[in-house]
């Protein structure tokens, strides 16, 4: 049976993972958070040094749990991969060719056996260029920084809006200008600006697109 793939790309805090997870649940597809995979590699590199990247497949195994927990070599690292240290280094590590080819292969393999909703930066352009539905999710930097501020405050962290805005803009800049599969909207992706959409509205729009496309 052929599998169906939905690709969701876009910059930080556009709403990709929140909405992708809900769409996957509704369609009973597998949700794959590729950002979490790059974060897990970054965590390992911060602990063991860049040298391990030369033979990355011998060092790193990444799997997901049933509640989207991320396992790095068998240990649940879902919390650790969201630390400021990982966030500050993830775009640098993600620009390295060996890291990308290792993870892209892994992501493609998953999509061969399961229907997926996959989110990231290069899913529609590189990982799954034949995805049935491609979304490029966007929101203004101000809105995205405010969303992150709410999340950090809820976690009990004190951080100011300007620092978060600067971090988001810096990461978007590295992600969009890197040499290998930069963050760009695929020619056949549909632009979805979530700045003034609720999570439910954005989810409904994607489900509608999927239904139109697949006539389900
Ligand atoms: O959730 P947030 O927007 O903070 O980012 P993420 O989706 O967890 O991704 C973290 C970082 O991983 C991004 O800023 C990119 O540098 C990198 N990434 C990538 O290069 N390619 C992907 N397909 C997904 C993430
Ligand atoms: O995965 P990505 O970095 O693109 O964003 P996210 O982590 O899914 O969303 C960032 C934050 O924005 C989350 O706290 C979402 O609940 C919130 N959000 C929102 O308030 N309204 C939306 N339409 C989408 C996301």
TrEMBL record:
Domain Cytidylate kinase intervals: 6-211
Known catalytic reactions: CMP + ATP = CDP + ADP; dCMP + ATP = dCDP + ADP
Main location: cytoplasm
InterPro entries: Cytidylate_kin (IPR003136), Cytidylate_kinase_dom (IPR011994), P-loop_NTPase (IPR027417)
Signal peptide (UniProt feature, chain positions): none
Positions that bind ATP: 10-18
EC assignment: 2.7.4.25
Keywords: ATP-binding, Cytoplasm, Kinase, Nucleotide-binding, Transferase
Pfam families: Cytidylate_kin
A single GO molecular function term of this UniProt record: kinase activity
Subcellular location: Cytoplasm
HAMAP family: Cytidyl_kinase_type1
Homology family: Belongs to the cytidylate kinase family. Type 1 subfamily.
The name this protein goes by in its record: Cytidylate kinase
Upper lineage: Bacteria, Bacillati, Bacillota, Bacilli, Bacillales
The encoding gene: cmk
């Amino acid at each position: 049976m052929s599998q169906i793939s939905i690709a969701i790309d876009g910059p930080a805090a556009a709403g990709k993972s929140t909405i992708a997870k809900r769409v996957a649940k509704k369609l009973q597809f597998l949700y794959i958070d590729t950002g979490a995979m790059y974060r897990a590699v970054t965590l390992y590199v911060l602990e063991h040094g860049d040298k391990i990247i030369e033979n990355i497949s011998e060092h790193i195994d990444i799997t997901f749990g049933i509640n989207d927990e991320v396992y790095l070599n068998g240990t649940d690292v879902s919390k650790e991969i969201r630390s400021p240290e990982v966030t500050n280094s993830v775009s640098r590590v993600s620009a390295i060719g060996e890291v990308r080819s290792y993870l892209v292969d892994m992501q493609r393999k998953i999509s061969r056996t399961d229907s997926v909703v996959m989110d990231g930066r290069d899913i529609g352009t590189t990982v799954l260029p034949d995805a049935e539905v491609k979304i490029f999710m966007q929101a203004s930097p101000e809105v995205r920084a405010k969303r992150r501020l709410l999340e950090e405050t809820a976690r009990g962290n004190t951080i100011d809006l300007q620092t978060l805005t600067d971090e988001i803009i810096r990461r978007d800049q590295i992600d969009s200008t890197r040499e290998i599969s930069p963050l760009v909207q695929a020619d056949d992706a549909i632009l979805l600006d979530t700045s003034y959409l609720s999570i439910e509205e954005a989810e409904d729009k994607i489900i509608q697109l999927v239904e139109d496309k697949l006539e389900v």
